[in-house]
Structures are given as C-alpha cells and as structure tokens.
Amino acid sequence: MKFGIFDHLDASGAPLARFYEDRLRLAEAYERAGIHAYHVAEHHHTPLGLAASPSVFLAALAQRTKTLRFGPVVYTLPLYHPLRLADEICMLDQMSGGRLELGIGRGVSPMEFGLFGVDIAQSQAMYFEAYQVLMQALTSKSVSFEGKHYRFRNVPMLLEPLQKPHPPLWYGLSKLEAIGWAAANRVNVVGNPPAAKVREFTDRYRAEWARLGNDPAQLPFMGFTRHVVIAASDREALGIARRAYARWFASFIKLWREARNEPAFLPYVESFDETVKRGQMIAGSPASVRAALAAQVSEAGINYPLLRFAFGDLTLEESLRSLELFAAEVMPALA
C-alpha cells in the first residue's frame, strides 16, 4: 500500500513566510519517508487554506523535491479560465519531470464563490464545461469549444504535459452518482467521511470497475483523509491533537459562521472526542495508530490513505515527529 499526504495548508499562526517554508521542509521530509504524493487543497479568503494558488506553491515544491508526486485536490475549476489553467498544468508537469497528480472539482463553498462574484448555482455547469476544455487542451494541438460559459475556436496549444495523455486525475467524492464517471475515466478518488460511509463508495467503485471489464490489479487509488498525530504515548498524542484540532476546526467553520449560513450537515464536527469516535482523527502511540489505521483501511476498503500530519497550530517539530514515528513504526506494517 502507498501513502499520501493531504494538506489544507490552514493557518497555524506563524508568519506567512515561515509558514510556507515549514510546509516545504515538511514536503522534503515526506519524500525522505517514502510518501507517494502530497495533495493540497484550494481555498480562498479563509484561514482554512493559505495555498490560494496551488500552482504557485507546487512550483516551489517541485524544485525542493525529486521523487515526491504532488497535486491539488482539487483545482476549483469554476474559478479558473480553463485555457490558462491548462498552461499551468503543462508547466508544472514538465518542470517536475512528470510528477503532477491532477485533482479537479466544482468547489463547495458558496461564500468563497461569492467573494469572487461567481454564482455557485452556476458552478456545476461551469465545472463541466471547464473540464471538457481542459481535457481537450491537455491532449490536442488546438482547442475549439462552444458552450454557455466558454467559447473559442482554433486556439493553438503550444504547451503539453509530460505525462500522456495527461497527468493522473483525482476527484473528491461526495455522491455515489459520480462513481460511474470516475471509473469510466480511471479517476482516482478520495473522501472524508467515516470508514463505513467510505465503504459505500469503494464497493460501488469496485463493482463499476468490474462491470467495465477492467483488470482489478489496475484499480485506481481510492482513499480517505485522516488527521494524524503520533507521540510516545496515547495521552501525549491526544493532548496535542485536541489542541491543534480546535484551531483547525475554527478555520474550517469560519466563513460559514461569519455568514450565519452554517449548513445542517458538515463533513466534520466541532467536538474533538466525536471526531476521534468517527475515526476522522487518529491520535496515539505508534502501536495505537497502527492498529486504528489498519482497522479503518480494512473497513473502508481503501487502497490509499491520505494523512494530515500538519494542521491547526501543530509546530513543525510536532509534525515531523509524527511523520518520523509513522515512517519507522507504522508504515512498514501496513505497506
């Protein structure tokens, strides 16, 4: 089994320059530890995400690493012009020696869309058109498209990705209905829910993959994200995790609460103890984390855990210690 990293790049309280440098140092450590890929979120005008331009951050990361794969989960397509984004994708893939993992999606925050003057009610149609343009731009020498939101004819594409036909695709799953498209297009998928809910997605994906006549050995990555803190004892790890999760959740919920528009259902809850109970937080000694993660992988039916070792106000040293213990005492037993 391979392991990935998921990172919101949420505000830690550190000055921005130091914050970015600490994340780049972590990326170097992820590479040394044998992590497969580093996946970053895209958010805007919120402390939940300080990599508002994933391409800029990932361009720096590409120059600090040699083998670590990386990419957004996801580029929020309605907030981009698809031709401009295609150029960025091609540059990133070429400059990294073909290490880009390409996450695409519609986006989920009406507040973030509103700050850009984009109507989230139009976002699904904008996403679908942008996706079509993007795929054409990454695989053709010219692009022509006639849609409601994007129209152009015979646009020459001088740039191309190193990976053919394009970098591996990723999609954040929230609805079972998307699995047919994902399987048909060999898209890697990731979700945030508890393991039992994730199992509904992985079972459906495997069934759809088989229905299409595909080789089970070629199954794309199916993953979940989990906050992880590892320390010498359960007590120490849980204490650190409780403190850091409080800050992370405050960033997560900030725009919703300021808008007084908190939805009835959110993928995360404020209670740290409930988050641990739901399995979205795994904190403890190496033995405890090893057992908990193995149990969740089995229950969820995934083949690719994406772990958060940096979130909230965790210090660089705390994140590095979790990673070092994971690489030495957890990963070998699960790989």
CA gyration radius, whole angstroms: 19 Å
SSE order in H/E notation? EHEHEEHEHHEEEHEHEHHEHEH
Overall pLDDT, averaged? Answer: 97
- Specify the overall morphology: globular
Give the class-level CATH name: Alpha Beta
Number of domains: 1
Q: Give the number of helices.
A: 11
Describe the sheet with the most strands: 10 strands, parallel
Named CATH topology = TIM Barrel
**Total strand segments:** 12
Helix content: 40-55%
Alpha-beta content class: alpha/beta
Q: What is the end-to-end distance?
A: 4 Å
- Unreliable spans are none
Q: What is the assigned CATH homologous superfamily?
A: Luciferase-like domain
Query: Which range does the strand content fall in?
Result: 15-25%
Nutshell version of this structure?
This protein is of the alpha/beta class and 335 residues long. The protein is built from 11 helices and 12 strands. It has one domain (4-73, 168-333): Alpha-Beta Barrel (TIM Barrel), CATH 3.20.20.30.
3D architecture notes:
- The chain is α/β, with parallel strands linked by helices.
- The chain has one domain (4-73, 168-333): TIM Barrel.
- Helices cover 46% and strands 16% of the residues.
- The protein has eleven helices and twelve strands.
- It has helices at residues 16-33, 54-64, 82-95, 110-115, 123-139, 179-184, 195-211, 234-258, 272-277, 286-300, 316-334, and strands spanning 4-7, 37-40, 69-72, 75-76, 102-105, 142-146, 151-156, 169-172, 188-191, 222-230, 281-284, 306-308.
- Strands 1, 2, 3, 4, 5, 8, 9, 10, 11 and 12 form a ten-stranded parallel β-sheet that branches. The protein has a two-stranded antiparallel ribbon with strand order 6-7.
- Strand 6 (142-146) and strand 7 form a beta hairpin.
- The longest helix has 25 residues, at 234-258.
- The N and C termini lie close together (4 Å).
- The relative contact order is 0.14.
- The model has no long low-confidence stretch (mean pLDDT 97).
